[in-house]
Amino acid sequence: MDLLRFYKNCRLCPRNCGVNRVDGGEKARMGFCGETDQLRVAYVGPHFGEEPPITGKNGSGTVFFTGCSLRCSFCQNYQISHQDVGENVSMEELIHELKNMILHNHVHNINFVTPDHFFPHVFILVSLLRENGFDLPIIYNLSGYESVEILKTAEDYVDIYLPDFKYSDTSIAAKLSKCPDYPEVALEALAEMIRQKGFLDVCSTGDTFAKKGVLVRHLILPGKVENSIAVLTTLFVEFGSGLPLSLMSQYYPFIAHKDQNLNRFVSEEEFDLVYSHARDLGFEHLLVQFPEEDLLRKPGISPFLPDFTKAQPFE
Ligand code: SF4
């Protein structure tokens, strides 16, 4: 299959821009993500901030791509989703870096972060890795706003999906991510991912490191507790209490928002309301990130606000 043809009339995500990203120049950047077919990357390296079955002892081998098809106004990776931070890389350079990470850092998996707008390149990279005998689990770390059609193509090139389910409220989705159809689209996408890979395997095998399956993530936003509660109820109704769920409280306010709630951290009361609801629903595989101590909420100290202009963004 000529995978690079997907860039010619780009419908790699539900934005369905239909732009030709191949021809270079400004027109090729007119899709919502603003990316051409030139692969751009902000960071390649072991990362220790994922959930324990993903991070393991040696870290998850992350690749952070420049650009994003969702571009949430509160994005914690704002530099790469909104501010263009990143460098052009060739496939040869990237495969070299991936091999390096596998052989020298002994990472447990390869974790492509927000790869959707570069899926064709990612699929080819995965094929190359496998042809070279590297059979580590391949992870797609996604916003949840995915095209089911493209996910069907992705099925052969992925082992683990880590999708967000951000919104159940269409008006919040419209305001913060310019996609009022997020709840409906993301739910269909999650169903397709689960159909392909099932729930994250460690939940049933008891193994330490994940090799296959789906783990859904939800970031609690300050002032949006009703949205979070409805997210959990929707996930429970659609997929049952066996769905592995990661509840995150790491929201970090770092740019000014008109919505004053978004200019603060999630309070303990807000977190407790959402966490209690998850427990009341009876989710059996709940990974929970509790609100951090005040010290970790200081600029330059928080591990949750990477600086991609530095060689080591997460230090
Ligand atoms: S990947 Fe980019 S250009 Fe393609 S449909 Fe999505 S936002 Fe549009």
Question: How would you describe this protein?
Answer:
This protein is of the alpha/beta class and 315 residues long. The protein has a single domain, classed as TIM Barrel, CATH 3.20.20.70. It is 32% helix and 13% strand. It has 10 helices and 10 strands. Strands 3-1-2-4-5-6-7 form a 7-stranded mixed beta sheet, with helices on one face. α4 links the parallel β4 and β5. α3 crosses α4 and α9 packs parallel to α10. The model has no long low-confidence stretch (mean pLDDT 93). The site of iron/sulfur cluster has 13 residues, from loops.
Fold blueprint:
Blueprint: E1 40-47, H1 52-55, E2 60-65, H2 78-81, E3 87-88, H3 91-105, E4 110-113, H4 119-131, E5 138-142, H5 148-154, E6 160-163, H6 170-177, H7 182-197, H8 202-205, E7 213-214, E8 216-219, H9 225-239, E9 245-248, H10 268-281, E10 286-288
Bound molecules: iron/sulfur cluster.
Brief description of this entry?
The protein has 315 residues and is α/β, with parallel strands linked by helices.
